[in-house]
Amino acid sequence: QWFNTPPSEWDKVFLRFVDKMRAHKLFALFIAIVIVILLTFISGCARFFQEYFAGSVGAFVAVDLSKKMYQNIMTQSLGFFESHSSGDVVARFSNDIFMVNRGLSNAFIKVLREPFKALTFLIVAISVDPWLTLVGICVLPPLGYALIQLGLYVRKSVRRSLMKVADLASLINETTRGILIIKGFQMEEFLKQRYDIEASRLRRFLRKMVKADSATEPITEFILVVGFSGFILFSGYRVITYRLDMGDLLQVYLALAMILDPVRKLSTVNNMIQTSVASAERVFEYLDLKPDIQDAPQAVLLEPLKREIRFESVSFSYDGKKIVLDNLNFSIQRGERVALVGPSGSGKTTLVKLIPRFYDVKEGTIYFDNTDIRKATLESLRKQIAIVTQDTILFSGSVRDNLTGGNTHITDEQIEQALTMAHAKEFVAQMPKGLDSNLGEFGQLLSGGQRQRLALARAILKNPEVLLLDEATSNLDSESEKYIQEALTNFLKGRTSIIIAHRLSTVMNADRILVLDCGRIIEQGSHEQLLKQQGVYYQLYQHQFRNAYETTEN
Ligand SMILES: Nc1ncnc2c1ncn2[C@@H]1O[C@H](COP(=O)(O)OP(=O)(O)O)[C@@H](O)[C@H]1O
Ligand SMILES: [Mg+2]
Q1: What is the pLDDT of residues 203-258, one digit of tens each?
Q2: Smallest CA separation from ligand 1 atom 16, residue
Q3: Which residues line ligand 1 (CB under 6 A)?
Q4: How many CB atoms lie within 10 A of CB 313?
Q5: Residues 6 or more apart whose Cβ sits within 8 Å of residue 123
Q6: Using one digit for the tens of pLDDT, what is the confidence trace for 494-538?
Q7: Which end of the chain has less Cβ packing within 10 Å, N or C?
Q8: Looking at ligand 1, which atom is closest to the CA of residue 82?
Q9: What percent of the chain has pLDDT over 90?
């Protein structure tokens, strides 16, 4: 036919080109090679950009998720951090985020490309012979079913192995933090065994995952071949009964082969996606967390304390079973200095933690003047309070950052002042870079007493209305403590403070002493009053304080 129609201008040009090429064979070869190189280059570029953009999308989404997760974690209450191991938290930020990223990138590359190819060839096949095509794609439902089941199995194994990874991370965290005790008490073998057991469990789950993943391609292949056999039988029948000519048959064959190739590729991608889904589920779990302590819907700004902090019938329990604080009724006047004493485990630390709402009371109410602290915004409440905890917590970073918490309005002069009051000025001055010296993770490069003094300086710098000191000077030598006592006397004037201490000098200087036992206040009054009562405080004084007092005096 092509000979009958007169050649168009373009055809003429093309024919002339072909003639020329025939004459110059080497040149033709050269042109062909150049074209191949150019095409490879272009397709390479296209592939690069596709993968680069897909990967970038993965990276953007994963990093964004991790930022959101961090923000959300920060809003959680203390209870959350007590019920989730550090390893679990760390694993979600490291391992899981990484897996989500990998999954997303792969999904964008393969999942976008392959179905598009499959669809194109499906249309071709249908246009040639719809019945034959239908028989050809009959293989897809059973294949899909098998792939989904395998994928679910992969996901389950991955989820379990991720939990094991988290357990291992916890163990490693405990090991690094407790290395001194591990070595000192020769617990190496014990911990090694614990690690071995956990690691073997991880290996078991990983192997289950690999098993399902390895089975995927062979199973896919098998189902495809069985399906294809049916297809060949049917197509043979159609050719023999003259409903289909050989040329068309070939076209449908080719088109179907082109459809099935992406299907096979997708079969393994599915497992990879399931792997990321298992991680993504863990990430979203943390993104969806709602803090159990947060601002009430119409929370008010808490005014600075004017009269008193009042506990009314306050009870508290961590687990809902064991009562830790039992029906507490007392108030602390503004400007008062209250000491809290009692045997360990009596609930002193817990009581103090209720005031900044680290936990909410289970029954009763804590009032700041006449505002229930649960009706005030957390920000306005915590702004008024500074706390020095029993285990002093410092962060890796400079002395300055630890003291100011990133508040750039605080001047170096103010910092120096606070350091002087906390008797920390000298040792900070002796550090190699002064205020810019790094403290190491958890402030590990300092002694316990030095850490406490910095924690105290941090509390002083906050310039709080209410100061909560939980055994804040327990690690100090008596000389430093005396010095700090004197410096603090001035600072505490006009401020409300609750001081948990077991040194007599600290307790004696308080305006009022509350004696806590088994979560109840059993005595209160001044030092002299309580001694006269000859009750629990008197006994504590006899056994505990007097020795401490004597050593202080010597
Ligand atoms: N985070 C916690 N989760 C569960 N129980 C706790 C927690 N913290 C303390 N407890 C329990 O609460 C009781 C009071 O502890 P605490 O307030 O620390 O006492 P104190 O400071 O007087 O030594 C103890 O029996 C302790 O076992
Ligand atoms: Mg305590």
Answers
A1: 999 999 999 999 998 998 899 888 888 888 888 888 888 777 778 778 777 877 77
A2: 347
A3: 82, 318, 324, 342, 344-350
A4: 12
A5: none
A6: 899 999 987 777 888 899 999 999 999 999 999 999 989 888 888
A7: N
A8: 1
A9: 57
Phi, psi angles (nearest 5°) of residue 387: -130, 140
- The closest residue, in CA terms, to atom 25 on ligand 1 is 345
From 483, 405, 407, select the one nearest 449 (Cα to Cα): 483
Q: Nearest bound ligand to CA 358?
A: 1
For 377-403, the three-class secondary structure string (H helix, E strand, C coil) is CHHHHHHCEEEECCCCCCCCCEHHHHH
Domain formed by 10-287, architecture: Up-down Bundle (1.20)
Pocket residue to mutate for ligand 1, from 349, 468, 498, most atoms within 8 A of Cβ = 349
Give residue-wise pLDDT tens across range 256-310: 777 777 777 778 788 888 999 999 999 999 999 999 999 999 999 999 999 999 9
Say which DSSP state 305 is in. P
Q: Hey, what CATH topology would domain 308-553 get?
A: Rossmann fold (3.40.50)
Alpha-carbon distance of 454 to 446, in angstroms, equals 10
The full 3-state SS of 167-213, as one line of letters, equals: HHHHHHHHHHHCHHHHHHCCCHHHHHHHHHHHHHHHHHHHHHHHHHH
Ligand 2 centroid to 352 CA: how many Å?
9
Boundaries of every domain in the chain:
10-287, 308-553
